[in-house]
Each structure stands twice: as C-alpha cells, then as structure tokens.
Amino acid sequence: MDERLPLIVVTGFLGSGKTTLIRRFIETPEGGDSGLMVNEFGEAGVDHRLLVHASEAVELIDGGCLCCARRADVAKAMHDLVRMAKTGSRAGGGLRRAILETSGLTDPAPVIATLARDPWLKAHVRLASVVAVVDAVAGLRNLEHRPEAHRQVAIADTVVLTKGDMRAAVPPAQLAAAVRAISPDARILDAQDETFRLADVLAGRDSLHAPPSPFLADAPEHDSEVSSFTLSLEGALDWPAFTLWLSALLHAHGDRILRVKGLLRTTSSDRPLAIHGVQHVMHPPTHLPERDAGPSFLVFIARGIRKAEIELSLARLLERCAPFAAREARTGSQDGNQALLLHH
Questions:
Q1: Which of 11, 24, 277 is nearest to 160 (CA)?
Q2: Which of 37, 166, 278, 287 is packed most tightly, with the most Cβ within 10 A?
Q3: Would you say domain 226-340 falls under CATH 3.60.10.10?
C-alpha cells in the first residue's frame, strides 16, 4: 500500500472557480482532513495550521506576462504538510491529502517538476491528479487566446467545467469539445451535473494512474502550435530500449512535449503498463490488471512537434531496438541517445 501523501494540483485561469471548488470540498466531512497550499492569500475558512502559504517569487517580463522565478516556497510548504500528516499535529488528527492551488497565470508543469525532482518529496508525496478548472463564460475565449489557459488544460488529467448555470455560459458540449481538442484523453466533468461529486476530483484518488483512453482519431489541429495525437503500437515493446528512447526524447524536447500518456505491452511484463509524463518528468509506470489490456498506444500533447516526427523517431528505435539496447548495456555510451532524437 502506498502510504505517501497524495497531492492534487488544481490549476485554471483567473476567475475560473478554483478557490470555490476547493472551499466547498474542504467544508465537507470528506475534505476536512486536507492540507492546502495557495499561491495567493484568500479568505477561505481553513484552520490556520492547514493554510500553508506558498508564495512564489514573480518577475515581470516583456509583454506584461508573469513568470514564476523560483518555487522553493512550494517545496517548503509541501515539507510542512508532510510533517503535519505524519505527526497528526492538527485538531482532529492528521492530513489525508494535500491540495495545491496555483495562481491563474501559472504554468503548473515547473511546479510539478520541482516536486518530482526533490528526493525527499518523491519518497513522501505522490502526485495523484492535476485538475484544470475551465469556466463556461470566459473559458472558451481563454483557451483560444491565453497560452497559460491552453497549457493548464494540456497538462491536466481531469478538467472541471464551471459556471455553466450563468446566463453568458456557452453550451457544455461546445466547451468540452474545445477541451478535447487540446487534451483528448482528459476526464471532463461538469460541475453543474447532478452526479458531480467533489470527492471524485479532490479526494486524492489516482486519476493519473487510471488507464488512458485509446483515442484512435487525433484531435484536429488549430492555429495554435499545441496539438494532440495518438500513436498506435503493435506487439510488445522492448521496455529497456523504449525507456532509453523516451528519456532521450524528453531530455531534448521536454519543454515542447507538454504531456505524454499511454498504455503499453512490453517484453518485460505480462501485464499492461500505464505511463504518464509531464514535460521533462516521467512518473513511475503502473502495472494494470489484465482486464485493462488492449493494444499499445501513446498519447502526446506537444507544442511545435508534429506527429510524423515522433512516429519516425520511434520507428527508428523499433527497427534496431534490440542491438541498440544491447550496445547501451555493454558500453553505457551516450552516442545512441543522439540517434534517437528528433531531426529538424
């Protein structure tokens, strides 16, 4: 049993309704044992022992865009919450989960990378879900014109649609289609739906490790440089060679590969593997039950990289994966990595 503290990252553009969702959840019996980190001070009625303020150093760059300069405070806040969870140093007992609410102009990927690269946090915290909140009034416009909103949805595994009951709201199906064009495998939930439950989103259940959906049709490409596409794979992959290829790909192009997720049959296991990565960071693969078996596939959400480029790179690997893996094992040479990178 994984005893690490589950972390739920809640992102979304300014005014999308992130704080409202979190406040509603922590006021329920299920959410009362949540630790909260926020980028900005708020007025949520949370016990002061739980409200750990993770203020980011922000600098103004060209064009009036906000860029988060350092994220050490986020790591410190997570350390505080983990210790609180282990010691039970709060009224009512220990913490069951941590919720990180990013500011509306934040790209959550660097925050996730910071947490994933901290050895102590990796041993004590597991990333359970990345939730993007998109409102039905301004969300469609934000997705079209705000790169931050686009990236927030691209990285999320769960998208919650809010404000659908407002007069100026666009139809839920139209907003869901816009989300699906960016992130075809995301779980999309409507906060106005009578079956919607906050605990399904914020309780810390592993959305990231659920088997992804094999979308056979790629999302349509738009004027934006961000696109999503699916690679269908036949047979069992050579797992050591594949991990070398994917590591080299993310090392060289992680800034442009916003998210990769997939279900794989490999030569190293008789059970399917679910993989998930955000930019330069790959999370440990998860073994799935045989009932979740199916054809292997990878879903990429990338900026400025075309499907054909990654297909060609992977095809080169599959043609010579066995000798390449053997050579790497014998020599530890780095030369092979260069051969697997995308060519421009």
A1: 11
A2: 278
A3: no
